[in-house]
Amino acid sequence: MTTLIDKIKQLAHNQAQEVIGWRRWLHQHPDLSQQEYATMEYVADRLREMGLEPRVGIGKTGVMAMIRGAKNPDGYCVALRADYDALPLTEATGLDFASLNPGVMHACGHDMHTSSLLGAAKILAHLKDDFEGSIMLIFEPSEEMYPGGARMMMEDGLFDDVMPNEIYSFHCLPEMDFGKVGMRKGKYMASTDELYWTIKGRGGHGATPHLSVDPILVASHIVVALQQIVSRNASPMMPTTLSFGKFIGSGRTNIIPDEVKMEGIIRTFDEQWRLECHDKIRKVSCGIAESMGAECDLFIDFGYPYVFNNDVCTQHVHDSAVAYLGEENVEWLDMRMTAEDFAFFAQKIPACYYRIGVHIPNTPFCNLHRPNLIIDERSIELANGFIAYNAMTALKNAQFR
Fold it and tell me: Is residue 47 helix, strand or coil?
């Protein structure tokens, strides 16, 4: 007897080259956050070819479509989400299908996410007579840029007509070999807030520093002092990261500038501690500046919350992965300090955000957000089949809850 897994794996295999072709088109035509018009139209066209009726322009450049089962189509709803914005990087992979848009690259795997969800959509549309309830497909823009496409889409009425009962999404993981899937229950990915300082002093000649208020010195003291936020204020049981990525004082060898601009991030896993961090960072920064005769303007851009994976949804992904791939290919993962705006969905709906391995075995490791990132394209066939299987079994399990 042909099982559901056999049926889905065969469908995924039969369409594998077509879905890889979709991925390669997306990779060649990357769009930056909030500029994904070509991507939006491409995704919508593929959905229309499947007989679906996508809504476009949600949250400016997002897409949503429904696949309704033959039975109780307005009943239980499982949502599946993929993101599709690219990064401002110049590609260095040497691939035949490398980016045609100068300075823009799919270096975070979003092309793989989107093509995999499109592939799953094609399988699910083919099998819609075999499931009860409905499946919502969410193609999200601007994951890489605040305020995040998830929030933008929800504020633009994404769930006005249908509120899903569960939601699932995945991210490719270059640290994990092709063929493997991983997940974690509970707190998984950190909240993230962006920090922007302007330290105002009084510039002057480098040979007469006593006549100036040196903002470079002041800013340096702030950078060093703020390390105590993590080392002496954060609980050892609460992962917290404070990092600086930009420090600009536009003077010269003999010119002390009037001001310094700094940028950084703070990431953690607790909302109360998150707010306490903001308060401590502000007090330390402004206090040091004032004590040294300078001024400090600090803007904290309140970003994405931490990603929380619902226990039931995550156990379901685990059990589905074991059934689909075998227990030896399924891993429980550790917490990560990276951030994801999928967290906004997970705040409203029971959710699971999981990982699919894309590393080509026996090749050097290359991290996400790097210009030479190459994924194992076999992971696309695996992903679109597994996404479809996980969604169908989630709908089936809902009948017993």
Answer: helix
Distances (CA, A) of 101 to 36, 82, 131, 289: 12, 22, 41, 43
Amino acid at 352: C
- The per-residue pLDDT for 1 is 80
Taking alpha carbons only, the member of 276, 191, 196 closest to residue 233 is 276
Domain CATH number, residue 364: 3.40.630.10
Q: How confident is the model at residue 401 (pLDDT cuts 50, 70, 90)?
A: low
Q: What is the mean pLDDT of residues 369-388?
A: 97
Beta bridge partners of 276: none
User: Apex CA 366: angle with CA 84 and CA 27, to 5°?
Assistant: 30
pLDDT of residue 2: 87
Sheet holding 351-359, edge to edge: 55-58, 62-68, 134-140, 77-83, 166-177, 351-359, 181-183, 330-332
What is the per-residue pLDDT across 80-116, written as a single tens digit (0 to 9) for each? 999 999 999 999 999 999 999 999 999 999 999 999 9
Decide if 284 contacts 225 (C-beta within 8 A). Answer: yes
Q: What is the largest CA-CA distance in the chain?
A: 87
Which residues form the domain of 362? Answer: 4-189+306-398
Cα(43)–Cα(39) distance, integer angstroms: 6
Say yes or no: 167 and 211 in one domain.
no
Helix ranges (H only) for 76-183 are 110-126, 149-155
DSSP state of 17: H
Q: Are residues 327 and 368 in the same domain?
A: yes
Which segments of 64-157 does DSSP mark as H helices, in order?
A: 110-126, 149-155
User: Looking at the structure, do residues 374 and 294 belong to the same domain, yes or no?
Assistant: no
Query: Is the distance from CB of 248 to CB of 259 less than 8 angstroms?
Result: no
Whether residue 129 is predicted with pLDDT greater than 60 in this model: the reply is yes
Q: Looking at 152-285, which runs of residues are DSSP E strands?
A: 166-177, 181-183, 186-189, 191-200, 204-205, 241-248, 255-256, 259-268
Name the one residue in this structure whose structure tokens are 């969604």. 391
pLDDT digits (tens, 9 = 90+) for 44-70: 999 999 999 999 999 999 999 999 999
